[in-house]
Structure formats: structure tokens, C-alpha cells
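During the practical work, I selected for study one protein's amino acid sequence and its C-alpha cells, as given directly below:
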Amino acid sequence: SANDSAPCFRTGACDDSARTRARVTMRRRGDAVAVRRRRRAHASVARARRGGMVRFKNRYLVVEIAHNDGRAMEERGKERAVLDTLRESLRDNFGDVGLGRALGALSVRYVDAVTGVCVVRCGREVAREVRGAIATVEEVRGRRAAAAVTHCGGTVRSTREACARRLETRALELVARGRLKAEQAEALVETQRQVIQSAVYN
């Protein structure tokens, strides 16, 4: 009957040829799945090489650094100085492991020495640690200073806009304190808006 000839692995009623056919069928199915997976992997790599659909998730922080002596930041090597300060703070607060996790995407995209406004890029998964490291900064290049995050965004566009707004606010504060003249502040903001557009990128 049909039931007598049907394969049954549990009872051992299947003959060797039925078992062989079953193994061949499963192997072919497995090979087909493997081929589909390889094709998807190759397609992902091709998109990445074309700069297409694969994206790394970053966060962009607008940071303000204020020195205790009230003087502007030194212009020479300012980006490097801020980056070294962040790395040191990350190591002090989170150890070498925490620093290592953050180093992949950590960079300083923009620094204005007059206002102390900066843009820092970091990975999304370590944004909290980087913000904590910024909050605990006590000095930059041996000068006592404090730092604060005024914006955290996931896009370059929003970060550029937030940076320009903070720069303008900070320039007006310096005018009010007599550190800058109104025309100097206006020229500074106009010039730095253009710099921000080119300096802040992925």
C-alpha cells in the first residue's frame, strides 16, 4: 500500500535509497539557501563600495568650551588640542576599553577659537560616554576650562544650524561683556557660517 512504501525514519522502515534521496534533497536545499545568502552579502558589499545604502550611525555634538581666564583659545592646533583633551577625559573616566570603543568615530570637525564653539563627531553607541567625558573636562592645553554640550544631533544639517545659532549667541555674549565690538561679532558670525558649512560633514 501507499503507507507501507512511505519513508518513516522513526521506525526504521525506510530503505537506504529513500534515506539517500532525503539527504540529497536536504543538501540541495541547504546549498540553495547558502547561495542566496552569498548573493545578499555580495550585494551589500557592492552597495557599500558605491557609497550607497550602508550607513554608519554617528552623533554630532555642539560643544562650548570656556576658559576660566576669559581669554580666547589658542588658534594653532586647536582641533588637535580639543581631540587630545577628549581622549584623555575618556581614558580617565572609562578606562582604555572605553577610550578604544570611542576612537573609531571620534573626531573634532570644527573649532572656533574666539567663541569656543566646537563640533565633535562620535559613534551613536558611545554618545553618552563622550558627553560624560566632555562634562568632566577641567583643562585644555594646561589652561583651566569647562566644557558643555549644547546640542546632540544625528544629522549634519541640524548640527550645522545648531552650531551657527550657538556661535551667534556666544558672539553676542562677548559683545555684551566688552570682549568684542558689534561689527567684529557680525563679521565673525558671517565668516564662521561659511566655515561651518565646509568643516562639518559626515
